[in-house]
Amino acid sequence: MAITITFGIQKGGCGKSTTAGILSYLLHQDGYRVLSIDIDSQGNLTELLSEQPSNEFIGKSVLEAMQQTDVKKHVHPISEQWDLLPANNFLATFARWIYTGKTYQGDHVPFNGNPSLILDELLNQVRDDYDFIIIDTPPSLSEQTTNALCASEYVVVMFECSNWCYSAVPNFMSSIESANSFGSRETKMIGILRTMNDVRRSDAKAFNELIAEDYPDDVFKTIITRKAPVGRLSLYGFTDNAELKAGLDQYNNFYKELISRVQNQRD
Ligand SMILES: Nc1ncnc2c1ncn2[C@@H]1O[C@H](COP(=O)(O)OP(=O)(O)OP(=O)(O)O)[C@@H](O)[C@H]1O
Ligand SMILES: [Mg+2]
Hints:
Elements: E1 3-8, H1 16-29, E2 34-38, H2 44-50, H3 62-67, E3 76-79, E4 82-85, H4 94-100, H5 118-123, E5 132-136, H6 143-150, E6 154-160, H7 163-182, E7 188-197, H8 202-214, E8 219-225, H9 228-231, H10 233-236, H11 244-266
Bound molecules: adenosine-5'-triphosphate and magnesium ion.
């Protein structure tokens, strides 16, 4: 049965999509069967992994998978044993569909279940087909994020070392606790990843220390710094990228820490 991990924080631009993409890649490289899910209407994870514009997936995305209650019909293969459930801008109509039954095509597809558990229930169709399901979320505490949290066993909280990200953390933690209490998967925070670190800035260093003082048992030891090859992953992707190794270097340590925490939880 797959282990589902969500990457989230409602503050924008904290490395959620990049890290979810890299983690999916590292899991795949390690021989695990992986399903990567993009539940953000920006479609950034979709473009990173598929190396195609997210508009290519109009009508063939996670939104239609939820509306038609069919995952397999909507997954896009990335590689052997690695699939993507893509997203595009039409995912912005998700909440309207849940509460009015109206789809973006103008059809009426009434939804009668629990609006927070749509993704969780949908994924039951494929949990036995993968070892890991990795979910990238939007920068908001929206219906998409609630669905991702309720569909996951574990959540990595992305912490970009800034004041506004620091303010976002407590409410995000509360959302994880809510998912734990009303969802069916005992959703837990598995750790806080300090990322996008600018080594030249003393305020960044101070925020990294502050979050470690607040959550000493939760921060990962690895701190991800800003590096050009990581930023350029959105241009070059994972295939035929000469600087891939340089980009992924620091993520290997995070990967090892995360897998070991997951294994400790399972033992
Ligand atoms: N370690 C890094 N070094 C350099 N650039 C990075 C790094 N991580 C992410 N980036 C770049 O920073 C920007 C924000 O990253 P990303 O899109 O992954 O964040 P996000 O949290 O998913 O954003 P959003 O909240 O909009 O979904 C992107 O342009 C990405 O390429
Ligand atoms: Mg993103």
